[in-house]
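Appendix B. Chain record.
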Amino acid sequence: MATSSRKWIWITAIALLVVAAAGAGMITLLFVLGKGERVEVRPRVMQNGLSGYTLLIDGVDHGVGLDKPTNVQDQGNPNKDFSRLGSTYYHREGPLGLVLERFIWFRDKENSYPSDARLPASLVGNLAQTQGAPLGAFATIWSEPPIGVLDLGAGTVASYARPLQTIDFYESNEAIKELSISKGPKPPAFGFVADALNRGANIRLFMGHQRKTLSEKGPEAFYHVLVIETARGHSDRPAVDRLTKEAMELYFDKLTQNGVACFHVSSRAYELSKVVVDVADSLGLVSLHGSDLPLGKDFIYSSEWVMVARKPATLTRLGKAPAGVAASVKWSNPPLLRAHVWTDQFQNLAAVRQRAP
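Structure tokens predicted for this chain:
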């Protein structure tokens, strides 16, 4: 066996061993050297006494998962169990959270999920009215809109999943998958995906290069929302292949007519929103820019997003905060420069570098 092959076998074995330790609550730091990425999992205690883990990829925070209460009787209690709360850039009152909430038919109070019971109840009702083979009843299985996500991260988007709802993650690093789906008896470091599966959501993980795998395995005209991370690790190294005209065409092949592509463009190094807006315009699509400020919780981060759709009316609806939600997001119509239309053959990062203050 070649030396390089033995090297990667040992790296994989060590990585999986450490991942198993993470599930047992023993880990303080994880390094995974595969695929040129440094992946770390660090325990974290919040200001309000909550504890959990932070996922870092190349030193950049890609998600926080809160621990379940140690008392089993407290698990599921909305006043004591906060493990399902969307956190960091994906929290409920940020730009992405408001979009996802708009695509959920029944909005619940924060950390309370009574509408989880709606889909199973409607399915039972349909079965009761069906004579013979009950196949028609399963039409309700898509009544919560399917979501696709490029990059698994900590699996935070799965916190929005309702029973029977489909959320597809496209991920390239097997070690990151192991942080959300444990092969052993111990729970994974991040519980968003496992918990969604336990409550009956249809969570699927497609492994491989994200854009290529989406092209090959993503259903056509299926997703109502596609979440696209524009930086795999450090924001100094954006995933330029996800920002090209050809990539945008792929996303809208996979979206329904009223679907929305949500580009996470938070970056201290580049103004990637300029690229998304210009590429979208070149294809006759429309854009809406959204940003928010921290809400005073140390597991909630500010973020910047560009939402892209086929029709202005779709974005107009998204820009209005649902009832009972503070208007913490600033929505704006981004300017069209028509100078940053990237293709698979041409990208110019220097042209969108952030200027020093």
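Further analysis of this model is presented in Appendix C.
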